[in-house]
Design brief:
The chain is mainly alpha-helical and 333 residues long. It has 2 domains: 10-185 and 301-330, 3-Layer(aba) Sandwich (Rossmann fold), CATH 3.40.50; 209-296, Tyrosyl-Transfer RNA Synthetase (Orthogonal Bundle). 53% of the residues lie in helices and 7% in strands. It has helices spanning 23-36, 48-51, 58-75, 92-102, 107-111, 114-120, 129-143, 157-174, 219-228, 245-257, 262-268, 274-297, 301-330, and strands spanning 10-15, 41-46, 83-86, 149-151, 182-184. The strands form 2 sheets. A 3-stranded parallel β-sheet has the order 1-2-3. β1 (10-15), α1 (23-36) and β2 (41-46) form a beta-alpha-beta unit. α4 (92-102) packs across α7 and α9 runs antiparallel to α12. The radius of gyration is 21 Å and the shape is globular. 40% of the residues are buried. The structure holds adenosine-5'-tetraphosphate (AQP). Adenosine-5'-tetraphosphate is lined by residues 15-16, 18-19, 24-25, 27-29, 50, 152-153, 155-156, 190-192, 201-205.
């Protein structure tokens, strides 16, 4: 009997080296990736061309790309199983982005992107064209590798949906060149909120770092940040996104980084105050960071550079094959 060769689905995701990675990035994105490595062929990128959509210091940018690679490794991304590479090492990303800017993406699509509105704020006219067109580069990242699944936090959902539309439009015109990707978002923790303002996403480029617990935060600084985190009015520990958004956010962090689910935590803290709750949460966060940083500190910059070099070759091979098909289809090259 003929045995069917099982092909695994391909996963693509990435993070910009645009600041200190925080527990929001870990919970929303990286922690999902780690579990997916057994079941899927995974490709994880350090997307430095995305980072330059806002001005970066060149030395810092280079340093952070290595730091993000080490964070992927410390979190459990295994370079034997997954491809880890830096976006700017594979020129096909920017080449395909240009083509998709012309064939696939429309001004009307980009005008709808909420992240551009959030990031450019009142200065839309002076924002870079790159910041505006960023979702098209993200579509190129995904479509180059035939990724079927894109695991991200909730803020990136709209961009993956755009990648789907672009792929469908391009395929409609030029044949089945791209796989239409699907977004995967975790049920809890898809949007970790800022510690001092629960209406705002925890963001690595936030100018006030007291809003975030970063993965490489000094342990005692992290403890203080939790103790200073805002809570809502009232005295009971309850999960209620509408009326107690700050507390609900802290409960989510507690449950994901600790060992107890939210309903269990609510039960266990019945009759106790916010002070006790935050003290215990700080212990959970400190334990998580201590374990994470122990692993991180064992990885050298040289290790990270070697892994990026290997990843570059593997990613470029796949991406270049796709580019040949794309160029042929549109009549260039
Ligand atoms: N607060 C968050 N909660 C859950 N997931 C989050 N992600 C980001 N913030 C949270 C997810 O982490 C990945 C990082 O994506 P990115 O580097 O492309 O940038 P981003 O989405 O714009 O994240 P940041 O931290 O807010 O970066 P800056 O400040 O540079 O813009 C994505 O999967 C994202 O969904």
């Amino acid at each position: 009997m003929k045995k069917e060769i099982e092909t695994k689905k391909i996963i693509f995701s990435g993070i910009q080296p645009s600041g200190n990675l925080n527990i929001g990035n870990y919970i929303g994105a990286i922690s999902q990736w780690v579990n997916m490595q057994e079941k899927y062929d995974c490709i994880f990128s350090v997307v430095d061309y995305h980072a330059i959509t806002v001005k970066q210091n060149p030395d810092e940018l280079r340093r952070r790309a290595i730091e993000v690679t080490k964070i992927y490794l410390a979190a459990g991304i295994d370079p034997e199983k997954s491809i880890i590479f830096k976006q700017s090492d594979v020129a096909a990303h920017t080449e395909l982005a240009w083509i998709l800017n012309c064939y696939g993406a429309r001004i009307a699509d980009l005008n709808k992107m909420t992240q551009f509105k959030d990031k450019s704020g009142k200065n839309q006219e002076s924002a870079s064209v790159g910041l505006y067109a960023y979702p098209v580069l993200m579509a190129a990242d995904i479509l180059l590798y035939d990724a079927e699944i894109v695991p991200v936090g909730e803020d990136q959902k709209q961009h993956v949906e755009l990648a789907r539309d672009i792929a469908k439009r391009f395929n409609g015109e030029y044949g089945e060149i791209f796989v239409v990707p699907q977004v995967v978002i975790r049920k809890d923790g898809a949007r970790i909120m800022s510690l001092l303002d629960a209406s705002k996403k925890m963001s690595k480029s936030d100018s006030n770092q007291n809003n975030c617990i970063t993965l490489l935060d000094d342990i005692e600084v992290a403890r203080k940040k939790i103790m200073r985190a805002v809570t809502d009015s009232g005295i009971d520990i309850e999960y209620d996104l509408e009326n107690k958004p700050a507390l609900s956010n802290l409960l989510t962090i507690y449950a994901i980084l600790g060992t107890r689910e939210i309903p269990r935590l609510v039960k266990d803290y019945k009759g106790k105050g916010y002070g006790d709750f935050k003290k215990d949460l700080a212990d959970v966060v400190v334990k998580f960071l201590t374990d994470f940083q122990t692993k991180y500190n064992k990885i050298s910059d040289e290790d990270a550079l070697i892994i990026l070099e290997l990843g570059k070759e593997r990613a470029a091979k796949i991406a270049n094959e796709k580019m040949e098909k794309v160029r042929k289809a549109i009549g260039v090259g």
